[in-house]
Amino acid sequence: MTDHNPDRIVLWPGYFNAKLSRKQGRRVPKESAVSDPTLDTLALAARNVGLSKMKREADTQHPKRASQKEGRLWLSKKDLQATLGTTSKEVVMQTIGSKWRGQQRELKEQEIAAKQAGPKTGDKQARSQRKQVKSKGPRRQKKKKWKL
Questions:
Q1: I want to staple 39 with a disulfide (CB 3.0 to 4.6 A). Which of 71, 116, 123, 143 is the partner?
Q2: Which residues contact 29 (CB under 8 A, 6 or more apart)?
Q3: Where are the domains of the chain?
C-alpha cells in the first residue's frame, strides 16, 4: 500500500473470504467469513453495521494477491469510534463479518423458502406438468422403403 493515512483503516474483501486460509490472507474467523466477497457487498455490510464515512477504490489490488483487482474500502476512524466505540481493526472486521454472514444466511434461507413454496399462481409455464419440448430444427422424415 502506498497510501498511508493514520486517520483511516483499509479493509480488503479478501480478509472476509471463507475459501482462503489464514495463511492466504483471511483475517476473520470462519464464523465471520463469507463466500465470494466483493467490494460492493463489503460496503453494503459496513453500511448495515452503521458506518457512513467510507471510500471505495475499485481497481486496486492487494499486495499479496497482485493478480486480482478486488478493490479496497477505506473507513474513517472517527466514524468507527462514534458508531462502534472502537478503532480496533480486528473488532471492526469481526463486527462487519458477522453481520455480513448473517445477511448471507438470511438470503439463502429466503431462496430455499421460495423454492419450497413452488411456482407462483400466475406462472403457467412453471405450473404446467408437461415439459415444453423445444424443436431442434427441421424434423427429418423417415425414408420410405420401396415396395415392389
A1: 71
A2: 94, 97
A3: 8-118
